[in-house]
Design brief:
4 copies of one chain form a homotetramer. Chain A is α/β, with parallel strands linked by helices. The first copy, chain A, is built from 11 helices and 11 strands. A 7-stranded mixed sheet of chain A has the order 3-2-1-4-5-10-11, with helices on both faces. In chain A, strand 10 and strand 11 form a beta hairpin. Chain A is elongated and about 70 Å long. Chains in contact: A-B, A-C, B-D, C-D.
Chain lengths: 320, 320, 320, 320
């Protein structure tokens, strides 16, 4: 094996740069050349790349975003574009590709592997934590901590004004971020797409809390639960209490990765190169029960990651 | 003088607790008792207060929010309520009141001083920086830095995705936060209520930047400029470019105060007590041209704080 | 079971307050009264305690330190003092005790359980991560992230001055903090007590790096490796290069806990109360392979936690 | 005027990059070419430079350190080396030089201006805040806030252990950082080189505090006061209390600049180019009483910046 490629795809996540660095340095240590394709699959289709050496990934471990840039490329899903991408990879001698991204990127990797026959290894990096086959994705811990810091600040205002806050966090269709954030900030309630929103239950909870002397509340809601503005209105109308909405926005995607996100980036990048070297393509690396593992790309794409609802229950007990 | 009162009113601002601490400890040093009224003017009307000693303000210098809680109290503006508040102050022997808050609180202090005849000293604390008579309010520097940290993170995503971001910051009807934030993050454009929004100028600027090779942009917009969602749409429709809106919400109001906000809290609290001791009531303390000063409450309430637009111009030159 | 006690002992760790909150609220949910003993074992000996209710642990989840205060109590190890402590626990009707602390505190719990016959459950909280029976202690992730943030800043100066920095981190006799920090900051070398320091190897590594064009370096050293000043001198004398020492001090012990430290605090506190309720005393809770577990206090005290040296090897490969 | 140079010299300070960016973009706006010399005066002597365009200073506003690198160059003070530097500047057509650094760099600029006859403008950037002619240097506010954040964390441990901490901050021979930090963290005592250390006064203060019920204390000490370890020992020996020393090290020099440090960088860089354009060389820019100003390089070099001791007194009153 002489040359591999690396690409970051889909939404960016903190730690993608640390993962690029890991792939490049581990590969270089084995005498393998690394090509970094720019702007996700779009760059593979357009044949835009740069050679990455140990020196060119220097000083990036702590940076958010991705030096390779990224994109969500709708057009890349057509057969014609995939053919083009496949030809480019072959033309450049790419014998394996490390694909850093979320669940959409894993599906892209599967499609591309079928078109090109080139072994792909997926490195799960997504703040949403929604890749099947890993307990945690690169960037998840950072996004959670960014939200927790923000909400700790919002709590100051909530308490000072005896006010209720709905705080919307990211996570697309899943509640992983919301659940962990809700537990960590001591939210009075946590709303996730995996559990149907019940206005009556929520309003009752707030009433019970009020009776106990809790005049302010933080309700963490995943973006996937739908219109969070309506929830604030439900509270205002239903209970006659002041409720404000605050949306923790794109800051969750950026910022310097936490130690844990960097640790996963290092381990995942290392395992990905090892797999490619061993001719063990079409895998997705991950961490399961505290151990670095890998499963087949097919299995990762065909399954929906389950969510453990017990931490929601624990959060509820702890916010009494 | 034996007893003074202290109250935090209006929106909370980081550094209010440091200001309460300063008032209490300076007053105590002069043998004066301090009563802390709760929940702004509402607590004065309801006669809710606690005695504050040097020990009871221990460990609060670094906390956001206000241990006295605060409120915006519409009812308190009626003559009847003001009469009640006035009686409570007299009944408790309050010979002077330090009012910590924004421009609305200064107007409240003026009204209350007229009703009660008790000397009031205003301590400007507001993230909006909109109190006439001080170059800077307690909390402004903290809110600016919170926004800057957030936008530094959003920049990661903007660059990685070659995308344009509109970032809405607070400031109510004024652009002080936006202007300083725009300069500090190197925003490609900064929109403030003091300058009329011109769609054509903004779109042209983005086009010129694109021609220079700038593929991402951060546009900082004060909430006072109106519907920021529309600005994102203007860009998407007018230029066919991806533009996202991110609203830096209530986190700007909270969090641990910066050194500068704590410094102002210490100086303002100290000056406020000195003024009350000297029988010099109905003043608003401030910092002007680097010096701790005070002006009459009347003058502060009757004037609108001017905004220096030159930093917008400088920001524009620097973002080329 | 009507009453349990909770105590924080040994060095403080971020997340201890979140653990106290968890113990109190879970126990209260089962109708059990909780007594919080102050200043570690010293407070048990002196019978200093306060009743903790769900309201009295409100607003502490995000605070560093411990509201119960803590101490390292040498005298408490004598039979006489233990007898006194034992009597106090019984006198107050304490039927189980949650002991939050590091490995020293676990040994204290074992001794106290023998003297008093009262079931003890250990909750591992220590920045050092040195408790046998858990892959991670409460506070470890926070301390690691604090160090990583500091070193990211030091890297600015190291690069700007083309200079070598030795950065000493905490961890007492163990290298857990250093190993994770070294990986996360991309340290050129990481020195831990578990691996004998070899001056020649270190100097050679720096020379090789220099030849590759690396003019600055970060060397992370655990305090347990001994005199770090000497290492800086070794480099200056041996290589004629400028080397500075920076000691990341007590800030590592404090600060707001990360989401992960709060998560562990919630889970450990919950499990500890469950164990006491089930009459299952003299256990140490923990997280092993991603699952909340518990082992016997005896086993925890009699074993030394092993350290996985593979992340040091990975860090070395990644810093080439 | 066609070409100017820019150099960063002496110790690095957060905001140097923002200042480089400001110089380059303002100059470019006037059609002037900018050469960036590397590694301080050493790079001028060695004729190491790169042309800086608006694009090459993109994405650096938020970065600590200096992309031009810096050094303290002892040899550069010899006549021979200065002659070489002077020739290099002339050979490259440099008609004016912006020198970003502390008081040593200002003296270097004066010497170089005499040797070369080329107009120099000093931009004060130093965490120590010790340049005469400006109330505040670029980087000072950042270093202060970094220390304040650290000490807020140390306070957690100090309170939890009822312990006294001496915290040493930077500032070389001056107490500017210590004084502002001491006020902002609510230090029980602040030791600066400008006020002679008096063991008796310090010990007495701690005794008085203890009598008031203050069991922990933070004593902020500037590095310029000398052996801080001895102060900890004085307390342990003199009072029999536990006292720990924590040194806030090089992290103070690095990290992302605060909004205020970036604001000064923008304003100073802008004024520096304006002065060079106006043929107004050998000046030092600054902020005085809230206004951007400039004084002669000679005056700046010949005077020692005075320190206002009143904030030490205020800090003392506030920590009672």
């Amino acid at each position: 094996m002489k040359t591999i490629g690396v690409v970051t795809s889909g939404g960016d996540a903190p730690g993608m740069n640390a993962a690029i660095r890991a792939v490049v340095r581990v590969a270089s240590g084995h005498g393998i050349r690394v090509l970094g394709f720019r702007r996700g699959w779009g760059g593979v289709v357009a044949n835009e790349f740069m050679e990455l050496t140990p020196r060119s990934v220097s000083g990036i471990i702590q940076l958010g975003g991705t030096i390779l840039h990224t994109s969500r490329c709708k057009e890349c899903e057509t057969a014609g574009e995939q053919e083009k991408a496949s030809e480019n990879l072959k033309k450049n001698g790419v014998e394996g590709l490390a694909v850093i991204g979320g669940d959409g990127s894993m599906r892209g990797a599967r499609a591309m592997s079928k078109t090109s026959g080139i072994p792909m290894v997926g490195i799960p990096a997504s703040i949403d934590n929604d890749v099947y086959g890993t307990d945690e994705t690169i960037g998840f811990d950072t996004a959670v901590n960014t939200s927790v810091s923000e909400i700790d600040k919002i709590r100051d205002t909530a308490v000072s004004h005896d006010r209720i806050f709905i705080v919307e966090v990211m996570g697309r269709q899943r509640g992983f971020i919301a659940a962990m954030v809700g537990l960590a900030v001591g939210a009075e309630a946590t709303l996730v797409p995996e559990v149907k929103y019940n206005e009556e239950v929520l309003l009752n909870l707030i009433k019970v809390n009020e009776a106990k002397g809790k005049k302010s509340a933080i309700i963490v809601a995943a973006e996937g639960v739908g219109d969070t503005r309506k929830i604030a209105e439900d509270i205002e109308k239903g209970l006659g209490l002041e409720a404000r909405l605050s949306i923790i926005g794109y800051a969750q995607r950026g910022g310097s990765p936490t130690a844990r996100s960097r640790f996963l980036a290092a381990e995942f990048g290392n395992r990905a190169v090892e797999l490619l070297l061993a001719g063990n393509g079409n895998r997705v690396v991950g961490i399961q029960n505290g151990r670095i593992t890998d499963i087949s790309l097919e299995e990762s794409c065909n399954n929906k990651k389950p969510m453990d609802l017990s931490i929601l229950q624990l959060a509820r007990v702890l916010s009494t």
